[in-house]
Amino acid sequence: MITIISKKTHTPHKAPRTTDNHSAFFELCLTITLFGSMGAITWAIRGTAGWGGVDGTVLPGMTWGLLWYYICYRNGLDARGIVLWLGLGIALGGELGYGQYVSWIQGRFHAGENILPISPWIGYRWFFLCGIGWAAPGGILLGWALSRATVRMWIVRSLLLVLLLFLLFAWPLVDRLGQVCLRLCPDLLFPHADLGLYSGELDKHLSRTVYTNTQNFFVFIWWLAALTVAAIGKDRVTLTIGSLLGFGFGLGFMQSALWCIGYSYAPNYMDWWKMWELNAGFNLGVLYALALFWARRNLYSSLSKNEPFDKSSKEDLSFGWQKTVFLAFAGGLLIFFIGFEYFFYTGLFLTLFYTVATLFTMSGKRRIIDSNTISERQKSISLIFSIFLLLFLLFHGGSERAGILLGLYQAEAVDQYAWPSARIFLFAPFAILIVGVALYKMWRIMRNGERVDRVIRPLSRPEYMIDLMTLIGFIGALSIWPAKIGVLYAFFIFLALFAFCRLERFLNNTG
Length: 511
Fold this sequence. Notes:
mainly alpha; 21 helices; globular
């Protein structure tokens, strides 16, 4: 949930947004520009060698999460518990495929050695469903992190999360569902099913179509089920944000795919796929900015009704250690699935790091460890780990291109997540430094008598956010070098820094 750090800090920022629509609109435009520009860069990084679908999508997710936290902090609000779940939720969508839809919107359907005509609208329809699947997990998990819930509702949410993980990562299950769909409703999901293409042994194109369409369709059904559960439980937050991000990015995903038509008319003019990624990241960033705007407005509305959103909220104290155990293992499970496909042991380390650190928030003398202390520790550990994970994965993936540019190894040596000794030596110093700083920060959080603000506040200074955005821009330029489209990375980092500085000045004037 978003809570109030202190009424004294929050009140000056709240008043203009409830009385002056011009101020609210100006701040929203700056926030949209900031989220969209950083989303464009990080989403394009995600699609570069060095990062896979799921682990790469952590980069935009955690970036949006930290921007969300920072803007809330500057408005006197506490959103430490939001960052990790926003980043992990959107990352799950990275497991969904869509590559063959590019040829579909160009009117080409591959079946073995043959190319059949297909209506481009079929490709756009599947881009729409896939876009929902990419953003839906992030929207639903973000809604869960923002909303109140009973123990019974958390049990239902846990079952939904497990079901989603099965749909994304239990590949034999998806294959089995695909075979069932081929028998029961082939015309619904699979183009040209009336031609009998899907009988017998399938070639790689048709096999990919069956798997991809089945997975995208059932994740879409999962999204509808999660929204239905939210509606039944009167969870307006999850219902609103889940609908906004899911449906909105379905449209945004479909729109950004238009860039791929460029391959039909000017295939060598530029990297049209990278243009698609920049556009898609910008679109989703805009949606997260709108979600932040709505979440804060919803908070103000709840405060006007005297609902308990401040730190003394009973919701924050009702779960105690049970909630921390749930967050430790749920978060650990999500982190494990980020890396198990490409870097199993590194992913296992990240999983254990987060799980143990979160469980450790319950340690200490019983007389000083209460539910409120556990909750505060857990939120701070979650924020620190989110920053750690973003930096770790930035350098982890960036080490591939850095070593190539430095002449330490050839591109073939690091294909498919390979780690030659030179890459290990290149990444190791950064990894040791990042892990060491994270452990030190967590130790300070856990130390008895240490005030949380002394550890968290330095992370919320504007110069640190500027440093982070500049670093992300540098990694982006490194990952695409020497392609000429890298000039757009410079353009978007300029827009992001411009919007951030203007937003910072606006918040200073308001406060």
